[in-house]
Design a protein that fits this description.
The structure holds two protein chains of two kinds.
Chain A lengths: L6 H33 L13 H28 L2 H33 L7 H20 L5 H15 L2 H11 L19 H39 L5
Helix pairs in contact in A: 1-7, 2-3, 2-5, 2-7, 3-4, 3-7, 4-5, 4-6
Chain B lengths: L1 H16 L3 H20 L3 H23 L1 H9 L2 H6 L5 H30 L7 H25 L6 H28 L5 H30 L1
Helix pairs in contact in B: 1-6, 2-3, 2-6, 3-6, 3-7, 3-8, 6-7, 6-9, 7-8, 7-9, 8-9
The chains are: A mainly alpha, B mainly alpha.
């Protein structure tokens, strides 16, 4: 980790990793979409509308995962003053907000035919909405100060405070009797979803994961280069 | 301990002698609640149905508006840095400031709530649960708010930003506060919601001072 703290090393390593991540993302999303839209069977109750799941569920997983990445980056940055960790957290925030928005919108589109409503105020939906606002708060706080490092670290503290929300999202469907269905993939006793639907879902999830990794690397690289440009513009060799 | 008490006393004296901030909070709370009967109509059944929610939303907003004076004046005149030199750990100072803030806002809101509840035709049977829920919930508002207030010290457009940071975190208090108040007025057992509020208070008491103190250190760098 100490070696990675060197931005030059990171730029070198990330340049090598990026094409692989991007290729894996393209492959995962391409294959996943094909499997989800053409190969996976329609649901016996939901019909073709079940295919919304292949976008909704991976984006929901990513919404939580990206927040965990962001919070971990914030913690590492605050504790060890690791310079790249804050950059990673800040690069992850808009991506996480995007995944959360996709999750909310696709869930809303799925809810209309299945539940007969675009939105219900159940615990899962509400806690994911709170997650979305936490992302927005992080981004707003990061840019609210004239001193860049102040905003970075204030936002990092907020990210850590918001971690409370992650277990609430995960267990909201178990703790409260909600309209949103309980976990059917990551649960004790194995998944309850049919294998013919589980595989396309997993391929899509892998595609989403690599898509996030590729975008994260691109955003981190551009943030580092931007910092370099600014340093050059002010004639500061550091 | 004596330093803790002294700090609470100082903040309370400032709150009650400077321009009557606590009166502003009470007046805002009352006005915000009074807008609802004028807005949705005076039917007693309708008002009784929404009364718990209206009271809690108004209390949340009143607490939010009072957050800026938690650290802002001390930060502006530099006394925050003087306080940081005290032997009392910054975390405990945050706790003392939250206690003083609660005594001058949350407690006022709790005392005003039953009166305003009558105006909204809130069922008398739920009054005990409402007051108890307010007693448990409003300190959480001060504690969570202290994190937001410390984080936004010196930020551009801090007020709007503060509400963006704090209101999402206030949502659980709103949900369980309303649940406890409504359950009692509808004849159900308010205990589960009250226990969840108490759990929230315990968690906020233990965790919020750390986050707020870290944010204060950042602001004083």
């Amino acid at each position: 980790m100490a070696r990675l703290a060197n931005p030059t090393q990171f730029l070198k390593l990330s340049a090598a990793l990026l094409p692989w991540c991007a290729a894996a993302a393209a492959l995962g999303l391409g294959l996943g979409l094909y499997l989800a839209l053409f190969v996976a069977p329609p649901d016996y109750q939901q019909g073709e509308a079940v295919r919304i799941m292949y976008v909704h569920v991976p984006s929901a997983w990513m919404a939580s995962l990206v927040y965990a990445v962001m919070a971990a980056g914030s913690a590492v940055g605050l504790i060890w003053r690791h310079p790249l960790a804050h950059i990673a957290a800040e690069a992850a925030a808009p991506l996480g907000a995007g995944f959360t928005l996709i999750c909310l919108v696709s869930g809303s589109l799925w809810g209309e035919p299945m539940w007969g409503t675009w939105w219900v105020w159940d615990a899962r939906l509400t806690s994911v909405l709170v997650l979305f606002f936490l992302y927005l708060g992080f981004i707003a706080l990061e840019h609210a100060f004239d001193d860049k490092s102040r905003g970075t670290r204030a936002a990092a503290i907020l990210a850590l405070v918001g971690v409370v929300n992650l277990p609430i999202i995960k267990f909201s469907v178990d703790w409260w009797n909600t309209l949103h269905q309980p976990a059917s993939v990551f649960r004790l006793g194995g998944p309850t979803i049919a294998a013919s639907m589980l595989w396309p879902l997993m391929v899509m999830a892998a595609g989403f994961l690599f898509f996030f990794a590729a975008l994260l690397l691109i955003r981190m690289r551009s943030a580092l280069m931007e910092a370099r440009l600014r340093a050059l513009a002010f004639g500061n060799p550091g | 301990m004596s330093q803790f008490v002294a700090l609470v006393g100082r903040d309370l004296r400032l709150a009650f002698r400077q321009g009557g901030d606590w009166l502003n909070v009470a007046a805002f709370f009352a006005l915000a609640v009074i807008l609802f009967p004028l807005g949705v109509g005076p039917e007693p059944e309708l008002l009784a149905r929404i009364s718990a929610g209206v009271l809690w939303v108004a209390a949340l907003l009143a607490a939010l508006l009072s957050l800026e004076r938690l650290f802002q004046p001390d930060w502006e005149d530099g006394s925050l840095e003087a306080l940081a030199l005290m032997p009392l750990p910054l975390e405990l100072q945050v706790l003392a400031k939250c206690l003083a803030h609660w005594l001058s806002t949350g407690l006022i809101l709790t005392l005003a709530a039953p009166v305003l509840a009558l105006v909204l035709h809130f069922d008398f049977a739920g009054m005990g649960a409402l007051v108890l829920a307010m007693l448990l919930g409003t300190p959480v508002l001060s504690l969570i708010g202290s994190v937001g207030a410390a984080l936004t010290l010196g930020a551009r457009r801090g007020g709007v930003l503060l509400s963006l940071l704090v209101l999402p975190l206030y949502i659980p208090v709103l949900i369980f506060g309303v649940a406890a108040s409504e359950a009692a007025s509808l004849g159900f057992n308010p205990q589960p919601a009250l226990l969840l509020l108490a759990a929230g208070l315990a968690a906020a008491l233990a965790l919020a001072p750390w986050a707020a103190a870290a944010a204060l250190r950042l602001a004083m760098e």
